[in-house]
């Protein structure tokens, strides 16, 4: 009898082990199936977005063609690539952020200050060539628009007109602003170097003071022990 019971127990244990493996594999398959369904839904959503963007692109292209705009021949200002490579300005999350940056000369600095509590004594990053151009031409664009429309210019219209004026410049005219930007970069690099040197010296002085204080405290402790003995 005992041998028969042991045999049955062994069979039950084996069956339980197989059942555990079965349920584990079944749960894993269900998880994979759910993940696949999410991926399929995401793909469908992306396809719908692509179709919508294509329709919007065709609509905008047709409207620009109706107005006779030469958008196919216009080059995007190099400043957008410079911002990504050099970090001259913070990347904008939307077109409205670009408008705010151009409409307010200090907006890029303000946004950087809000993003991180930086040292107020640290050198400020230079504005790129396009923003230097916008800073100089902003007032004239405002005056021209007010004379023509008798109202204040909006941020959107300001961005549009400044971009058009920038794209209309010759390479020689743009070179003036690129040279200004290079000069500002040299100034910034020099100020950053001096700033780091000052910080390293101040940190070294603090370290020496701390070590001196620790040495005095250790000497006082030794003197106290000698007096006790």
TrEMBL record:
It comes from Mytilus edulis. The keyword Coiled coil applies. PANTHER family: HIGH MOBILITY GROUP PROTEIN DSP1 (PTHR48112), MITOCHONDRIAL TRANSCRIPTION FACTOR A, ISOFORM B (PTHR48112:SF22). Residues 2-56 form a coiled coil. Residues 123-196 form the HMG box domain. GO terms for biological process: regulation of transcription by RNA polymerase II. This is NHP10. Residues 123-196 bind DNA. Residues 201-211 have a biased composition (Polar residues). It is found in: Nucleus. GO terms for cellular component: nucleus. The keyword Kinase does not apply. Residues 100-122, 196-229 are annotated as: Disordered. InterPro entries: HMG_box_dom (IPR009071), HMG_box_dom_sf (IPR036910), HMGB (IPR050342), INO80F (IPR056513). Keywords: Coiled coil, DNA-binding, Nucleus. GO terms for molecular function: DNA binding. It comes from the Eukaryota. SMART domains: HMG.
